Amino acid sequence: MNAPFEGIGASVRRKEDLRFISGRGNYTDDINRPGQTHMVIKRSDRPHARIISIDASAALAAPGVVAVYTGDDFANIGGLPCGWQIHNKDGSPMVEPKHPVIAHGKVRHVGDPIAVVIAETKQQAKNAAELLVIDLEDLPSIATTTDALKPGAPIVHDEAAGNLCYDWHLGDADAVAAAFATAHKVVTLDLENNRLIPNAMEPRVALGDYDRHTGDYTLFTTSQNPHVIRLLMGAFVLGLPEHKLRVVAPDVGGGFGSKIYHYAEEAIVTWAAGKLGRPVKWTAERSESFMSDAHGRDHVSTAQMAVDKDGKFLALKVHTLANMGAYLSTFAPAVPTYLYATLLAGTYTTPVIYVEVKAVFTNTVPVDAYRGAGRPEATFLLERLVDAIALDMGMDRVEIRRKNFIPRDAFPYQTPVALQYDSGDYFATLDAALKSADYAGFPARKAAAAAQGKLRGIGVSTYLEACGIAPSKVVGSLGARAGLYEVANVRVHPTGSISVFTGTHSHGQGHETTFAQLVSDQLGVPLSQVDIVHGDTGKIPFGMGTYGSRSLAVGGSAMVKAMDKIIAKGKKIAAHLMEASPEDIEFKNGVFSVAGTDKQKTLGEIALTAYVPHNYPIETLEPGLDETAFYDPANFTFPGGCHICEVEIDPETGVVAIVNFNAVDDVGRVVNPMIVEGQVQGGVAQGIGQALLENAAYDASGQLLSGSFMDYTMLRADDLTNITVGTENTMCTHNPLGSKGCGEVGAIGSPPAVINAVCDALNIRHMNMPATAEKVWSIINGRAAG
Amino acid sequence: MYDFAYQKPATLAAAVAALGAEDAKAMSGGMTLIPVLKQRLNKPSVVVDLSGLGLSGITVTDSAVVIGAMTTHITVANSGEVKRAIPALAALAGLIGDKEVRHRGTIGGSLANNDPAADYPAAVLALGATITTSKRSIAADDYFQGMFTTVLEADEVITSVSFPIPAKAAYVKFKNPASRYAMVGVFVAKGPSGVRVAITGAGQGGVFRHAGFEAALAANWSADALRGVATSADDLNSDIHASAEYRAHLCGVIAQRAVKAAG
Question: Which of A549, A717, A746, B49 has the CB geometry, 3.0–4.6 Å to A741, for a possible disulfide?
Answer without folding.
Answer: A549
